[in-house]
Design brief:
Blueprint: H1 2-10, E1 12-14, H2 17-23, E2 30-35, H3 41-53, E3 56-61, H4 71-76, H5 81-90, E4 95-97, H6 101-105, H7 121-125, H8 129-144, E5 148-152, H9 156-169, E6 173-177, H10 197-219, H11 224-238, E7 241-250, E8 263-271, E9 274-279
Parallel strand pairs: 1-4, 2-3, 2-5, 3-4, 5-6
Antiparallel strand pairs: 7-8, 8-9
Helix pairs in contact: 8-9, 10-11
Length: about 280
């Protein structure tokens, strides 16, 4: 009981911006893990990575309204603060920051705009999404000034854009953590909790087919468009899903030239009205 009390006292739960500034004022090696809550093993991996290479770790929980291009999606985004706080206590996180919308957006910032080459994949189908992501992270980094920030690889396009934007503007290094998957290979995501059992199982089957496709493309890059076309037809025929995109892009600049370059297969689809994304 005594050790539990000491443990709880060590973790600081912060709600006010002024309290946050005071708390982290002298932390020179601070790792930052931004989240929207509904924490899972993917978040845990990022936190553990931060704790391994930083003296202290700060985790924020903030469902950012400006990155949602769909009001219903924002309202239904899974939330469980009580569970999240318990989860973070067990991970021995140093700071938890729970800001309000007013706190974050009190100060006016210049609008962020993506260029034409960046309006691909999720940016093409979720207008304003990444502008909202970049804006809110810009505000967080300006306030926190962490030495390092940690993001998941599941949304590789997000990581790609954030890394370029943040590292060009601040002295903050942006790190990526590998995608953590469920037993059925589905990438862990807060939105997975919105899936029913049937959709969850089918998403696992789809993921395995996408993994197989990535391997086939790696062996036959010249015919990758035909391989993708065939699998899209197969998935649309056998599953009740709406595919937004399924395409290959290299990891250097996200263009479609993949010959002799490292590349990823990117996918986004709706199943039972839940939007899932992944890359392989």
């Amino acid at each position: 009981m005594f050790y539990l009390l000491i443990f709880l006292l060590q973790m600081k739960l912060i709600k006010l911006k002024t309290d946050l500034i005071k708390a982290i004022k002298f932390d020179k090696s601070l790792g930052f893990v931004p989240t929207m809550g509904s924490l899972h093993e993917g978040h845990k991996a990022l936190i553990k990575k931060s704790q391994k290479i930083c003296k202290k770790t700060l985790v924020s929980i903030f469902v950012n309204p400006t990155q949602f291009n769909n009001k219903k999606d924002y309202k239904t985004y899974p939330k469980n603060l009580k569970k999240d706080l318990s989860y973070l206590r067990k991970l021995n996180v140093d700071y938890i920051y729970l800001p309000t919308i007013t706190q974050i957006y009190l100060k006016k910032h210049d609008k962020i705009k993506l260029n034409k080459s960046q309006n691909i994949l999720c940016a093409k189908f979720r207008k304003g999404h990444f502008e909202g992501v970049l804006d809110v992270l810009d505000r967080f980094i300006e306030l926190i000034s962490p030495q390092k920030m940690f993001m998941g690889e599941k949304d590789f396009q997000q990581f790609f854009l954030v890394k370029k934007y943040i590292e060009n503007k601040y002295n903050t290094k942006v790190y990526v953590g590998k995608t953590i998957r469920d037993k059925n290979k589905l990438a862990l995501s807060s939105r997975n909790s919105l899936l029913n059992k049937k959709s969850f199982n089918e998403s696992g089957i789809i993921t395995k087919k996408l993994l197989k496709l990535k391997n086939e493309i790696s062996k036959n890059r010249k015919n990758y468009k035909k391989l993708i076309f065939n699998l899209k037809n197969e998935l649309s025929k056998n599953f009740d899903i709406k595919i937004e995109y399924l395409e290959c892009r290299n990891t250097q600049n996200l263009n479609t030239s993949i010959l002799k370059k490292p590349f990823k297969l990117f996918a986004a689809y709706y199943i039972n009205n839940v939007r899932l994304i992944d890359n392989f």
